[in-house]
Design a protein that fits this description.
With 419 residues, the protein is of the alpha/beta class. It contains 16 helices and 18 strands. Helix 13 crosses helix 14. The structure holds 2H-imidazol-4-ylacetic acid and zinc ion.
Length: 419
């Protein structure tokens, strides 16, 4: 018998996401879960030692901690590849204005929107930001999220952007949730630069981006390419400046209007294009041609009561699709990936299997971690969930119910619902 640290057996469904197919998954491959009935997982030193039929594991491994998962689903930890995790304040006032028919864009024109969160975030101390973001991360972990991407973009000055990114780094160091940081100084033009936006852009390119990269505080560089925010040309200049410093591009693309975001994401070799509610035909072609992940955010469409991204068309075209919350105080305060999986099935037209792929293996690929997390196969990090459900389709079916019973992060039990 081989010894391991943790042995889970008897799961009614073990969702491995290990199918032998290449990742990210696209087209019909998105529906393949690598599902094993009566399956289990052996974990040692924070990694998956084996994942397969329970009988095999029971005959090969012994462990000090053995979990019987009869009647339960075991699956990879959820990955949330698009959040604006670190911010201060909230925007219930804007929620009420939108209910009264005032649009997200109109609220921004009146000086609210992103700029209102910028004011609150600049005024908050590092410690206050850590405390608030930590509370969000705790709740996300209980809903099964073991890795998140977190964007800056509520500082909009070099010092305030560095403060936000430093908070994300501190929380990543603290654990247990892994945080992958994205610089987003091009989230909006700050109030003090409204009359000379050129200077703000020049400052981002000449000073802020090099400083962020030098400090090692971000992996990606994102822009809000949108009518009334940053044009495709401005966005390209910012993304190219990031590439020169080693930051891989991401794009908030075609969220509120069709403005060339998809095309830009293809041209600059972005790892992902996010939102894509209004992509053009050329934009979708560019994504497919350049292998750009479409990160879809149905929680935002739900909260803004807007259209949804043409997800079925993307999948039929062979564009890999991932899902994320977009957690932010303006357009989507949803923290729970299981809710997003539900919305993806109900409103984007994904099947439950496709949605699970989009929230695990493809979500990991959207933040460059496809070789480490998002699947349960030997050698990968042991981030996994035990659900209080016998069938994975229960995740979207019991919409609004938290299905997560146990969360294992890097081989350690970090959350148990019954304790
Ligand atoms: O604070 O409104 N869309 N950025 C782009 C956001 C929404 C976040 C916000
Ligand atoms: Zn966003």
């Amino acid at each position: 018998m081989e010894s391991c640290d943790l042995l889970i057996t008897g799961a009614s469904q073990l969702i491995t996401m290990h199918t032998g197919a290449a990742w990210p998954r696209a087209g019909p491959g998105m529906a393949e879960l690598g599902l094993i009935e009566d399956g289990g997982v052996a974990v040692r030193a924070g990694r998956i030692l084996a994942a397969g039929p329970s009988a095999d594991l029971r005959s090969r491994f012994e462990a000090p901690v053995v979990i019987q998962a009869a009647g339960k689903v075991v699956m990879p930890g959820l990955v949330d590849p698009h959040t604006h995790l670190v911010f201060a304040g909230s925007r219930e006032n804007e929620f009420e204005l939108r209910l009264a028919g005032i649009s997200y864009q109109e609220i921004a024109r009146r000086g609210g929107g992103i700029l209102s969160t910028v004011r609150a975030t600049r005024a908050a101390s590092r410690e206050a930001l850590i405390e608030q973001a930590r509370a969000r991360l705790d709740r996300m972990l209980r809903w099964g999220t073991t890795t998140v991407e977190a964007k800056s973009g509520y500082g909009l000055s070099t010092a305030d952007e560095l403060k936000q990114l430093d908070v994300a780094k501190a929380l990543n160091d603290e654990g247990p949730v892994t945080i992958v940081s994205t610089f987003m100084g091009a989230h909006e033009v700050p109030a003090e630069h409204r009359t000379d936006r050129r200077r703000y852009l020049d400052g981002l390119i000449a000073e802020t981006i090099p400083r962020v990269a030098e400090a090692g505080l971000a992996v990606f560089n994102d822009v809000f390419c949108e009518t009334g925010v940053f044009t495709p040309d401005e966005s390209r200049a910012i993304l190219e400046a990031g590439v020169r410093c080693g930051l891989r591009p991401k794009v908030h693309a075609d969220e509120l209007s069709s403005c060339g975001g998809g095309e830009l994401a293809g041209q600059v070799g972005a790892i992902s294009a996010d939102h894509l509610v209004h992509p053009s035909d050329a934009g979708l072609d560019a994504l497919r041609q350049h292998g750009v992940m479409a990160v879809l955010l149905p929680g935002t469409s739900f909260c803004l009561r807007s259209r949804y991204a043409p997800a079925r068309r993307m999948i039929e075209m062979g564009i890999p699709v991932a899902l994320a919350t977009d957690l932010n105080p303006g357009s989507c305060p949803i923290e729970a990936m299981p809710i997003i999986i539900g919305l993806a099935c109900l409103n984007l037209g994904l099947t439950p299997a496709e949605a699970l792929t989009a929230a695990t293996v493809n979500a990991a690929c959207a933040i460059g971690l496809g070789d480490r997390i998002g699947r349960l196969s030997a050698g990968l990090e042991a981030d996994l969930l035990i659900l209080d459900l016998p069938d994975y389709r229960g995740i979207p079916y019991y919409f609004g119910r938290n299905p997560v019973e146990t969360v294992v992060k890097a081989g350690r039990i970090v959350w148990e619902w019954r304790t």
